[in-house]
Design goal:
32% strand; mainly beta; 6-stranded mixed sheet; single chain; elongated
């Protein structure tokens, strides 16, 4: 009887390991393994004419951010997006049109994986970061972009949304 119970537990463990590691399936739980997330060239990205509905509440006036000049040799601007408390604390960010941009994503959730995926009007990727655990930050260069609204989302936590406004 004891041997049968032990064999059943071992079989259950193997089934769970196989279910969690099957390739080609997208996990339906909080953590998704980091995929190769290379920035997508976005010089031809078309912006939508209207702001995207973010569905996220503004936490405070500090939840709005704008691009700051990067001072780098190539010019351009930096867009900063911050995640904290499993939400974007910067849900509305702005950037100048027609310039190269640097997206700096700060994940302030210790041990929690996040990414940022900026979309065009058709839902295509403009730029995205790798999924990484906090507390950490990553930067990705992209652009230039045309004026308009570009929604962004965390692919690990799809309820985390915001809008990049390029003007």
């Amino acid at each position: 009887m004891r041997l049968l119970r032990l064999a059943s537990l071992a079989a259950l463990g193997l089934i769970l390991v196989a279910a969690c590691s099957s390739s080609g399936s997208t996990p339906n739980w909080t953590y998704a393994p980091a995929a190769s997330a290379t920035p997508v060239a976005s010089g031809s990205a078309a912006a939508s004419g209207s702001p995207a509905a973010s569905g996220a509440s503004s936490a405070s006036p500090a939840a709005s951010a704008s691009a700051a000049a990067s001072g780098g040799a190539g010019g351009g601007a930096t867009v900063e997006i911050v995640a904290s408390g499993i939400q974007f604390t910067t849900t509305d960010v702005t950037a100048p049109a027609g310039q190269k941009l640097t997206l700096t994503f700060k994940n302030e959730d210790a041990g929690v994986p996040h990414d940022v995926d900026v979309k065009d009007a058709n839902g295509g990727d403009v730029v995205k970061t790798d999924v990484f655990n906090g507390v950490d930050q990553k930067s990705v260069e992209f652009g230039p972009l045309q004026a308009g609204s570009y929604p962004f989302v965390c692919n690990v936590h799809p309820n985390m949304k915001g809008t990049l406004t390029v003007q």
